[in-house]
Specification:
Layout: E1 6-11, E2 15-20, E3 32-36, E4 40-43, H1 45-50, E5 63-64, E6 72-73, H2 76-89, H3 93-96, H4 101-116, H5 133-154, H6 165-178, E7 180-183, E8 189-194, E9 209-214, E10 217-222, H7 273-284, H8 294-309, H9 317-333, H10 336-353, H11 358-373, H12 377-395, H13 400-412, H14 417-420
Antiparallel strand pairs: 1-2, 3-10, 4-8, 5-6, 7-8, 9-10
Helix pairs in contact: 4-6, 5-6, 7-8, 7-9, 8-9, 9-10, 10-11, 11-12, 12-13
The structure holds zinc ion (4 copies).
One zinc ion binds next to loops.
Length: 429
């Protein structure tokens, strides 16, 4: 992990996570954020028969461990490299090979703790990981009890590996909440792994970084531009913010942004046009992913606008679409003052470039609605009149949209002649 670029954090109310340093330069799309060896890992049963237990490559595995007759290797080199790790598990690996992967992982952790003589209950390098034992007890107490009992049965001749119930539950929790599926190059799961640092990255529907596995080693790269100060914002373990389902961690990862408000200054960040354009386009299309957190989405849009302003002209189509999206979100959140500011920014741009466009007509309609909400009736009337004038040109005065605006105007001031005069409304702005 490059501490210049990313940092681990733990803050009250936010929990723990990984983030791009606020004072850093941000992270370019595709750059390697960090790489890390697994703290523990296991291979799925079928895969364990046809893959080298060190490099995890699917090839002939002629070398077999004399002790367990279970661990196989493609070469002496791989066997040698795995020796230190394998000797911790050699005497129990046959007992656990058929167990569910969570249980295999727990036993692997117990073996590691035992052999490293780590203080009981203190997992040193994975002590940072959340275990969410209370949630697990609430949601699947039966499952937890079954796991405990299987562990005791499986390890009945290895009682020295077992630890007190509370510590054991914590390890089960850590394994359940933080494990990665190890994927091969075809993105098929071949095993499971736990990492001291990578496991602190949380699930997201719109991940900003992606994992790739080299053997059991994980490499994490930025899937898109990551802003300085961006971090993971939620600590619900593996619970999808959109669909609330439990999701395999590797299907989505993130170093998510938070709303702590780090402000970008000129020259602070990437000025690569293509990167910024991609970032903006992805963001505009990810409204659904942020359905439950509009404030956060708005924050990202605003940051995106700041970035774009440094490299694009105002009338850039991507810039305009981000601005439009920000306006939509404000209206949806009924943040009228904020919405009005976005509407006015858009108005200044669109008025110059799109004199009779539908977009401009609709913008004035929205602006009128916002002004009504703010109690600025006279301003609202002006906006709605302009909207009516523009949309009458583009849609014809009989159109529902135009009729609707006419009705609103009539309600505002029933006696006002100008609102009724539709036939002569074709003048320009
Ligand atoms: Zn190998
Ligand atoms: Zn062995
Ligand atoms: Zn999701
Ligand atoms: Zn932050």
């Amino acid at each position: 992990m490059d501490r210049e670029v990313v940092e681990l954090f733990s803050e009250p109310g936010k929990g723990k996570g990984v983030r791009a340093r606020a004072a850093g330069r941000g992270i370019r799309q595709g750059s390697l954020i960090f790489a890390e060896d697994a703290y523990i890992f296991t291979l799925d049963l079928e895969e364990s028969k046809r893959r080298c237990h060190f490099c995890l490559q699917k090839k002939t595995v002629p070398l077999v461990c004399y002790g367990c007759k279970y661990a196989r290797y493609c070469s002496e080199k791989c066997q040698e490299h795995d020796q230190q790790h394998h000797m911790m598990e050699c005497d129990v690996i046959n007992l656990i090979s058929g167990l569910a992967s969570n249980l295999k992982m727990v036993v692997a952790a117990l073996c590691k703790m035992h052999h490293l003589a780590v203080e009981r209950g203190q997992l040193s390098s994975i002590s940072n990981l959340m275990s969410h034992v209370d949630d697990i007890k609430r949601q699947r107490a039966g499952g937890l009890a079954a796991m405990m009992s299987t562990l005791h049965t499986t390890l009945k001749f290895h009682l020295d590996y077992l630890i007190d119930q509370e510590s054991l539950e914590k390890i089960i929790g850590k394994v359940m909440c933080n494990s990665f599926a190890i994927l091969d190059d075809d993105h098929q799961q071949i095993g499971t792994a736990l990492y001291a640092q990578a496991s602190m990255i949380n699930h997201s529907c719109t991940p900003n970084c992606v994992p790739v596995f080299i053997g059991s080693r994980i490499e994490i790269r930025a899937a898109r531009v990551i802003l300085p100060g961006e971090e993971d914002a939620k600590m619900e373990c593996l619970k999808c913010p959109r669909c609330s389902r439990q999701i395999p961690k590797t299907s989505a990862l993130q170093l998510l942004a938070c709303s702590c408000g780090y402000k970008l200054t000129s020259g602070d960040f990437l000025t690569d046009m293509e990167d910024i354009k991609n970032f903006a386009e992805n963001l505009v299309n990810s409204r659904k992913s942020y359905a439950n957190e509009p404030e956060h989405f708005l924050y990202l849009l605003e940051r995106c606008l700041q970035l774009q302003q440094e490299v694009f002209h105002d009338d850039n189509v991507t810039f305009v679409s981000v601005l439009e999206r920000a306006l939509d979100v404000c209206v949806e959140m009924e943040e009228w003052q904020n919405a009005l500011e976005y509407a006015e920014r858009l108005e200044r741009i669109l008025r110059v470039y799109l004199q009779n466009d539908i977009g401009l007509g609709l913008l004035y309609k929205t602006k009128g609605v916002i002004q009504l909400q703010l109690g600025r009736t006279a301003d609202a009337k002006q906006s709605l009149l302009t909207a009516k004038r523009l949309l009458t040109v583009t849609h014809g005065w009989r159109h529902d949209l135009v009729q609707h605006i006419r009705n609103v105007l009539t309600d505002l001031e029933p006696d006002d002649e100008t609102t009724l005069d539709h036939e002569n409304d074709f003048s320009n702005l």
